[in-house]
Structures are given as structure tokens and as C-alpha cells.
What we know:
The protein is of the alpha/beta class. 31% of the residues lie in helices and 24% in strands.
Amino acid sequence: MNDRYDVLIVGAGPAGLAAAHAAASHGARVGLIDQQATAGGQVWRHDVRRALPALARQSMRNALDHATVDWLAQTRVVTGEDGGLLVEDPKSARLLHYRALVLATGARELLLPFPGWTLPGVTGAGGLQALAKQGWPLAGRRVVIAGSGPLLLAAAATARAHGAHVAAIYEQSSREQMQHFATGLWRWPGKALQATALKAKLLGVPYRCGSVVRRATGEHQLQSIEVDGPGGLERIDCDVLAVGYGLLANVELAQLLGCTLQYQGAHAVVETDRYQQTSVAHVYAAGELCGIGGRDTARVEGAIAGHAACGEGAAADRLLPARRRARHFSDALDRCFALDARVHALAQPDTLICRCEDVPLAALDGHTDARSAKLATRCGMGACQGRICGSALAEIGRFPRSGARPPLFPTRLSTLAGVELSHFHEP
């Protein structure tokens, strides 16, 4: 089945929902795609025990209840080219054609390997949030949160709300960096209120700056961790460790479509103009895809992209000041939570880098690019397609992650066999 949309949006998080609402307000026929069964993205992931925030519920109503918006849940993009995307859902595959495309594919966690990181009981910080919201039992378990960035506080609050005993939060940024960041929060009153609310939820939980988890230990599952902090090495017993070093933009689809990327350190984001248009005509990008900026940035950029995709530049122009304010906050975050050199040196020669294919760091010695390493060791050939190990290797300075190739995710053979990509160019 072939479907045609005025505006097709990939990703139903805050950016995608805002884009759908904006585009639909101009009468456009909108298709909204997401891999999950429910809208909201990672920020507003459905929680089996707790209600969504009021802003999330309102954003979903604005987009999904609109008569001209088609909600395509549990649908993921396999590949695509100018004018159309090949997608599949649990039952079938189809081609979706568009006049304008908005990419709101969000971000994923940066996970950096360290000794013991593959033990059962060790997750990412965002991963712990997702597991808790899906019903993973945390009640009474001793949980440690570590890494860097605001996600640590959100993960700790979620764990505590689900009954966990949060033993401590370990932030790699120094106390001086954190104090400097905190003194500037007055410029963003909404963010200051959010931070105050999170601190209230985490009352009594130790928050240690300048601290890095060096090692996780256990016979068959996590039992304890070793933390390198201002006071030296410390050993802590725990049942669950959640470590995340910030977020990375999911640029694979944009890269496949030919959008120009720019690099912020070792990692790419999509380059856009004032109206969120990429270097490819009629393709727009919004939110974390354009640089990690959080929920508020995603919402305003999604709205700009939705208006611009419909040719409504005046409506987009009115939102430009809000985007500037939001992006200034994300710049402050980048400065505060820049990773310390200790973090880049955590992996040892025998530390697994590629969990999918059991490849240790030492096996990559002598390789200067991702392709040669992949051919010799299978590093990056697992289900994640290098999203975890490739990003980690880029961050620690081994070599850049290789480019995206179709299919973007493991897919059914029937999907690839049943559709000819030349159909994208049908009139």
C-alpha cells in the first residue's frame, strides 16, 4: 500500500508532536511515525505506574486527535530516498510518499565501556528510566546513578518513585563547574524550577561531583562498584548501576537521505537553516537531531519545522526568539558537562567494546577506521549496528563511527523483497 502525505514526520517525541500540531493547523495531511506503541518519545515514555505530565498529555492531544493526522505507531523506517520512505510495522511494509519530511528522530545515550559494564544489573541512566517505566522491579533495590548531565537526576527521581533505594548520584563534572552552571540558571526560570523540583524529589540522596565509576564487580551479577572521587577510591555495594554520559543525536536517517552533518566534538548533528530545513530540499530536522537541547528546545524547533514545511514562514518567524533562548541553555549544558579525560581512559585492553559480538578493546589495536575493524573483528555488526560501540570508539578517540547504510535496523526479508525503491519516484 502506498500512502502520500503533505508532511511526513519521523519521531513522535516532543519535537515530532509539535511539528504534527503545527503542520495540521494549516490543514496539511500529516503522517506521524514512531517505533513505539505510544507517542511521547523517550522523554514522555509511557509509565505503567504513573501518569504522564500534563504538558505531555496536552501535546499528544494536540497532535494525535487532529483530524488530518495519521498516527502510525510501531512503525520504523527501513530505508528511503528523496520523496519517500520504506517503513514496516509488525504486520506489513509499505512506501510512504511525502511533499515535505520532518526528521525528529531524537537521541540515544552515550555509553562508555568500563570494566564490568556488561554485568547483569548495569544499565544506562536512560535505560534504567525506560526499564522502570515498563515495570522492571526496583522496589527495595540499592541503585547507584553515575555519569554526567541532567539525565542522572531524572533517572534517579524515576528510580526512587518506583521504590528503589538510590544510594548516591556520581557526577563526573567538578563541583566548581556545577556551581558556575547553577549560578547562571536565573536566565532560564523554567529550568531553575525544574531543577528545584528534582532536588526536592531526591532529598537525602548524596550527590557527588568529580566522581567516576571505574569498575563494576560481581560473580554472576553486579555486587559492588569502585568510584574514583575527590577523596580517592571508594567501594560501594549495590544491586543496580545506571551509567550514562549524555546523549547523541540519531543522525542515521538524515545521513542516509544526504543531509549535511556538522560535528560537535566526536559526534555529528544535522545542519539546518533558520527554518529547520536541512541541505536537502523539503527535508527538515528538529530537536536533539540538531544538537542536544532538551524538551523545550525540541518543542519549539518541531513547531518551526512544522510551520515551515507548510510554507508558513511568518508563523515560524514568531518562534525564533524562543529557539534562541532554548539553544543558549543547551550551550551552557555542553560547557558544564564536558567529559573529563578520566572517562575516556576507563576501558582496559580486555574490556568488551562491542557487546553484540564480544569484541575487546585490544582486538581493535592496529585498526585506523571502523570499516577495517569491522571486517577483521565483526565490531559493529550486531543488532545495534554500531550505535553503541561505534559511538564509544569515536568518543574515546579511536576512530570515527562509520556511515549509515540501509537497512537502518534489522528488518524482515519480506520487507526488502516486496518493495522496489524505484517506486519512490512515481508521479
